[in-house]
Amino acid sequence: MKTAFEQFMAEAERVSHDLRHRQMMQTTLTKYAAVRDRARGAFRDYPAARQAAAEIKWEAINHLDQYLEELTAKLEARGTKVHWAGTGAQACEIIAGILRAAQARSVIKSKAMTSEEVHLNAALEREGLTVVESDLGEFIMQLRHEPPYHIVFPSMHLARGEIRALFEREKIETASDNPEDLTMAARRVMRKKYIEADVGITGANFAIAETGMISVTENEGNARLTAALPKTMITLLGIEKILPRLADLALFLPLLASSGTGQPMTCYNTLYGGPRQPDETDGPEEFHVVLLDNRRTELLADPEQRDALRCIRCGACLNVCPIFRNVGGHAYGTTYSGPIGSVITPHLRGLQDWKHLSNASSLCGACTETCPVKIDLAHHLLQNRRNAAAEKPSFWWRTGFRIFSRIINRPALYRLAAPIGRLAQRFHPLVKGTGLDPARAWTLTRELPKIPPETFKEYWRKRHD
Ligand code: SF4
Q1: For ligand 1, atom 2: residue with the closest CA
Q2: Is residue 313 lining ligand 1, measured as CB closer than 6 Å?
Q3: Is 114 helix (H, G, I), strand (E, B) or coil?
Q4: Which of 382, 268, 266, 364 is nearest to 313 (CA)?
């Protein structure tokens, strides 16, 4: 079986040679950049808004214990059942337990990256339940039996012709491959599923400690139907989704929309405060909130990188990342891809197995520059590289740098090394690409830079003699 690193390299190589994919990403993300800039321009003072958002999230993360207690107390006061899941497996078990108690057979689900993180669909299907994704992009990816390609645009890499072919294969009738026809075709399937579903599962964009409310933003109205029609509603969210006050949404909703999709505001913004109250005419009879840790508290305990918990999952850093744009979302093999995924995945899944993601970056800093909550992603990637090397230094790196340090600290050795290196390079074309090539992977697709014919000192001496 291939390691995560080998899989990443193989998929990255395949996709980066795919010109159709490159063209598709280029077109989509260039359009995104234009609308994002327009939406950010609608803020009276965007840099000040960004600074305020970073500070509010920083405060929330630094007082996470207090805000989570406040949120829980407020939710429970209105009859919501709050569950704590330490791990992904626990989250799945808690949700499966709620479904068993409700004697549920079918589940409708709106977009929730946390559910991807804990592999909820697979866990529920093992229990014999049918789970239907109601977000159009997620629905398409579910039909393809693939995870989302992007945290905001799950099927961004597909052309409409491919979606039509997929619908035809699944016997979903569509008049054409126009976006409207494809949407109407999916809608006809989905409407039935909402009515049949026993339980609705949603994610959350924010959780408001002050009022005990769950904030969900979406563009299709599917999360509203997911929450409103079934008798039982379950919301699964990471503990870092906390915002201290209701008023904070006035900043965070437009900030998320502008960075995420380039809209001034997302179409549907809903607050859920609990199950149906005696004087209310609609809403679920039961409301469960599952708060997921899954190693977030370990990240919280890291003073250098805890600010990564400020992330509002807008996806903006993915959209500007030259690596993501070339290798696509699936190459990463993680739930969260792009720069934020490369920063947090080693914390969530283990540093040594996922350290290669820290090298999947040119360190251009575009991610840091665009992040609406000012997470210094490029710096965190460097810290992950440093931590991985310190925790388990590679024999070859260690030996190589030891030899280098000996040579560089001894002028006589250094003088000797230059002509030896030049001599060795003469043989390089003969061994290039073979097992004898010391820089095999590197030189397969690049030229090894030539060692100059003389050192700087030799050059200087010659000039001044
Ligand atoms: S790290 Fe910043 S830019 Fe990237 S998804 Fe999170 S909030 Fe958005």
Answers
A1: 371
A2: yes
A3: helix
A4: 266
Q: Tell me the C-alpha distance between 166 and 171, whole Å.
A: 9
Judge whether 162 and 131 are in contact, CB under 8 Å: no
Question: Ligand 1: does its nearest atom lie under 6 Å from the Cβ of 312?
Answer: yes
**Confidence (pLDDT) at 451:** 86
> Using alpha carbons only, what angle is made at residue 119 by residues 118 and 124, rounded to the nearest 5 degrees?
115
Please state the atom number of ligand 1 nearest to the C-alpha of residue 338. Answer: 4
Residue pair 322/364 in contact (Cβ under 8 Å)? The answer is yes
Kindly tell me if the per-residue pLDDT of 429 is higher than 80: no
| Residue 444 pLDDT greater than 80, yes or no | no
Interatomic CA distance for residues 3 and 419, integer angstroms: 39
pLDDT score at 61: 98
Give the predicted TM-score (pTM) of the model.
0.89
**Model confidence pLDDT, tens digit, residues 11-42:** 999 999 999 999 999 999 999 999 999 999 99
CA nearest to 327, candidates 373, 353, 359:
359
- Return the closest-CA partner of residue 177 out of 156, 158, 200: 158
Q: Which among 306, 310, 317, 368 is the best mutation to test ligand 1's pocket, defined by most ligand atoms within 8 Å of the CB?
A: 317
